[in-house]
User: Fold this.
Amino acid sequence: MCSLERARVLSQAHELYSVATVQGEQLAQVTGRLRFLDELPAVGDWVSLTPTDPPLITAIEPRTSCFTRTSPGGGRQILAANIDVAFLVCGLDADFNPNRLDRYLVQARQSGARPVVVLNKADLRPELPRLALDVPVAAVSALTGDLAALHHHVQPGETAALFGSSGVGKSTIVNRLLGADRQAIGVTPGRHVTTSRQLIPLPAGWWLLDMPGLRELALDATAGAVHQAFAEISSDQCRYRDCRHEDEPGCAVRDHVDPARLASYRKLRREQAYAERKDDPVAARAEKERWKKIHKAMRKPG
Ligand SMILES: Nc1nc2c(ncn2[C@@H]2O[C@H](COP(=O)(O)OP(=O)(O)O)[C@@H](O)[C@H]2O)c(=O)[nH]1
Ligand SMILES: [Mg+2]
Ligand SMILES: [Zn+2]
Assistant:
């Protein structure tokens, strides 16, 4: 086969992949071999294309980062690959609730992307709130077009993805950065919500991905990713090395951290542990042993 071309997957619909090439956007399919191996491309993947009509994807380059979900039937689905920066978007309107970001923060830590909290709708609130999160913050307004702070966090050639609940302004941010009305704005959740992921090359020289609907997905993360996302809670100030800071007597963390963050930590930690046990009997046994030790330590005077 002569001269393969390098391309990037922008979106996927069934067996068709829209890819960016030097000649522009093209529709490609995967080779039977990749299909047989079940090595299918994800949005954001760099791939090799044949110069045929239609072009065929023959190989997928190794991924630098990976956003995954656990599939309802077991196994794991790759939602997006090669994301450098995870923009965790919050709206500074009446709906403002930074704790909604915790879940995305865990997913970002798990993927390998750098998280940045984006406080959108800054036009509605002259004074910025202080956040308990240990993550860089960019205050912007998609409405007025004041998005300069986003550019500070992405280098040319890098890829950023937008995470956040419906209504925080993700589509407005995409349209502003693109200088065109590409995404539908203000659509009713559950009806016309953008459900497909689409990678967009921006005039500024970096790539942007709108990640709709991630909140509802089963968390696919390790305990380590949860701990990284809640550094102030998982630091080892507690007398129990593996403390969950729930009802362990003598827990030294429970009373010293933001209660909303702690509640959020517990919920995500439980969900994460459950998902892990479900696909790993060895982990299930380890969890049981861990609790035995904690209960034993509780019985000792200490
Ligand atoms: N005041 C204000 N409103 C905004 C801003 N960005 C978006 N909106 C509004 O917020 C609503 C939801 O925006 P949309 O982009 O659809 O949010 P998405 O669901 O996250 O994609 C729309 O009515 C937008 O006009 C902003 O910076 N300031
Ligand atoms: Mg939207
Ligand atoms: Zn504790």
